Amino acid sequence: QVQLVESGGGLVQAGGSLRLSCALSGSTLRTYDMGWFRQAPGKEREFAAAISGRGGATFYSDSAKGRFTISRDNAKTTVYLQMNSLKPEDTAIYYCAASTYSIYSPDYWGQGTQVSVSS
């Protein structure tokens, strides 16, 4: 049974940084393309960043580009999202996702971790 567990969320002031982690268990990390999505209050879940299982190519939303960095450590079966220059509009629940085909249709989701950015 594949499980994804996020950690690293919290409260930070605008301009600050956080690093989210997503630990995968029950399978091999390189099997999956991995991604981070977020859902702000009253809004739909949206894509933030992704990293391919083969080759490690990365993809970012326009809002994440230049501020967020996704990375993976296959040995530790963990994916990271380094978030810098955080803005109040980054406040959301951040979800980790794993996919064997398209990151926009994940096979697995984590439970989410709250990120709150104060102005």
Describe the structure.
The protein has no helices and eleven strands. By secondary structure, the chain is mainly β. Strands 2, 4, 5, 6, 9, 10 and 11 form a seven-stranded mixed sheet that branches. The chain has a four-stranded antiparallel sheet with strand order 1-3-8-7, with no helix packed on it. Strand 7 and strand 8 form a beta hairpin.
| Main β-sheet description | 7 strands, mixed
Number of helices: 0
Uncertain stretches of 5 or more adjacent residues:
none
State Rg: 13 Å
Q: What's the overall geometry?
A: globular
What is the overall pLDDT average? 96
What is the compact description of this entry?
0% of the residues lie in helices and 51% in strands. By secondary structure, it is mostly beta strands.
Identify the notable features of this structure and list them briefly.
single chain, 119 residues, mainly beta, seven-stranded mixed sheet, four-stranded antiparallel sheet, globular
Q: Topology, please?
A:
Layout: E1 3-7, E2 10-13, E3 18-25, E4 33-39, E5 46-51, E6 58-60, E7 68-73, E8 78-83, E9 92-99, E10 108-109, E11 113-118
Parallel strand pairs: 2-11
Antiparallel strand pairs: 1-3, 3-8, 4-5, 4-9, 5-6, 7-8, 9-10, 9-11
